[in-house]
Amino acid sequence: MFDHRKYRPAPTVSLPDRTWPDRTITRAPRWASVDLRDGNQALLAPMNVAQKQALWRLLVDVGVKEIEVGFPSASQPDHDFVRWLIEERQIPDDVTIQVLVQAREDLIERTFAALDGVPRAIVHVYNSTSPVQREWVFGRDRDGIRDIAIRGAELLAREAAKYPGTDWTFQYSPESFSQTEPEYAVEVVNAVLDVWQPTPERPCIINLPATVESASPNVFADQVEWFCRHLDRRDSVVVSLHTHNDRGGAAAAAELGLLAGADRLEGTLLGNGERTGNMDLITVAMNLYSQGVDPGLDMRDPNRIIDVVEQCTGISCHPRHPWVGELVYTAFSGSHQDAINKSLRHQRADAELPWQVAYLPIDPDDVGRSYEAVIRVNSQSGKGGIAFVLERDFGLNLPRWLLQAFAPIVQRESEQRGGVIDAERIHALFREHFVQDGAPARLLGYRLNRNGHDHIEARIAVDGVERSIAGSGDGAIAAFADAWRQAFGTEVNVADYREHAIGAGTDAEAAAYVLLTLDGRQVPGAAIDRDTVGASLRAVLSALNGAELEQREGTRPGLDDAGARRSEQRTPAV
Question: How do the residues of the chain divide into helix, strand and coil, expressed in percent and rounded to 5?
Fold first, then answer.
C-alpha cells in the first residue's frame, strides 16, 4: 500500500541567525573526485584496470587535484591500481591521491602498506554516527561510536609515523552526517581533532556526507553552518562535503553548503554513484562558470568527458544532462528559436556585452558545442528556427512574409517525417517551392536602358517557346512588370521586394525576394543570381511561375492560406 503516513519530516536545525542565504560563491572550492571509489562500487560491472586507467587520465586532464582511487585494504583490484599509480609514477606533482578505509586496525595497517612510496596522500577514515546506524547496525551507544572514531584517528597517526617520507593528510567522515544529531556530530569530530592536533599550516579534512539525502538543501546548509560554528580549530580544518542525490538535490545542497562555510566538494563526473548518484562535479563547476566564477576545471571538451565516462561505467549520459547533454543547447520551440536568433544578432554586434542570449545561459562554444546544434527544426519549430538555419548555413535572410509562407511547408514535412529536418532538406524545400524561375517561364536574357526612365527588353521562354517582351517603368522590376502586362495581359503589382548579397567579395551572389499581388492575392518568389538585376527579374518569374503552377497542379502555397491547397480557378499568370 502506498501510505505516506509511515514517513516523518527530516529534523531541522534551529538557526534563526543563519548567514548563508546572504552570501555569494565567489571562488571555486577544492574539488575531489570519488569516481574511482564511490562511482566504481555503484556499477553493475566494476571497472577493469584499463578502464580505471582511462578514467584516471581523464580526471587529471580535467584538472581535479584530489582523487580518491579506491579502498586498497579491502579490494585487490584497488590495491593493484594504487601500486600501479605509485610504481609507474602516474601521479603528477600537483595531484594527491586519496584512499578510503574503515576505522579498523588491520585495514588501516594494510592501507598504509599499500601506499608505501607515495609522495603524498590523503587517508580517509570513517565510521557511521547516525542513530539508526548506532543503534540498529552497530549496537553501540554514543560513547561507543565516538570511541571507534577516536581509535581510527589514533591508528592513522600511528601508521603515518612509520612512513615519514610521505606527506600525509588525514580525513575523517562522520558517515550519515546529515542524519546525525548536529551536537553529536561535532562531539565526535572534535574528539578526532584532539587526536590529530591539526594546525593552519597542516590542516586535516573533515568530510560531511549526506550519505542518504533526507532533507531539502536548505536544511543541509543549516546543518553545515551550525557545524562550522561549533567546530574546534576551525582554522585548521578543511570542511568537505559529500552529497548524494536521493532527492535530486545533490548539486543544490553542495552549493548551499559552500555558502554555509564548506571549503571542498567530493563528487563524480556526470554524477554516477550509489542509488541516484553522487554530486555531479561537472554540473556544479559549470554552475559556477555560468556566474562568472572560474571553476578551475577544464570542461572545454565535454564530448571526451562523456565518451570516457560512458566507456568506463557503462552508463549513458542523458541527452538533457545539465550543461553537457547532447540537446541542452538545442531549441525546437518556434518562440525559443526566434528569441535565440534575435539575441545572437545583438550579442555578435557588440562582443563587449556580457553574455545575455535568451534560453542560452552560457555560450555553447565555451564547451565545444557548435552553433549548428543550437537550433534544430521539427514540427514544433516556427519561423525563427527556419530563418536561423537558412541564414547560418546558406546565407539567406528571408523576409517575414516569405517565412510565413514557408513555415507551414516545413512543419508539414516534419510531421510526415516524424522528426527533425536537417538544414539541407529545409534549403531544398525552399528552392522547390519558391525558387521556380525555370518553368513554365524562363529568363533567357535582358537589356536594360537606364536613362532617367528604365526601359527593358527581355527574352523569355514560356513552355519552351521563346519570345521577346519590352516595357518601361521606375526601376528594373517595374519595367519588367510593364513588359509582362503588355505581353500577357496580366497585371503585376509588386507589394514588397528585398535583396541582399550572399557572402562577401566580387564573386558574391545576390538573393532577391519579391511579393507580388495577382488577382487580389499575394504570391512570393525568390531567386539567386550573380547579377543583382537578374536575381530580381528571376524572383518575379518565380512568383509568376508559382502562381501558374498552383493553378495547374494545386501544389504551391501563397500568403492567403498559409500552405493549404487551393482548388478554385485563377486567371493564368503565364
Answer: 45, 20, 35
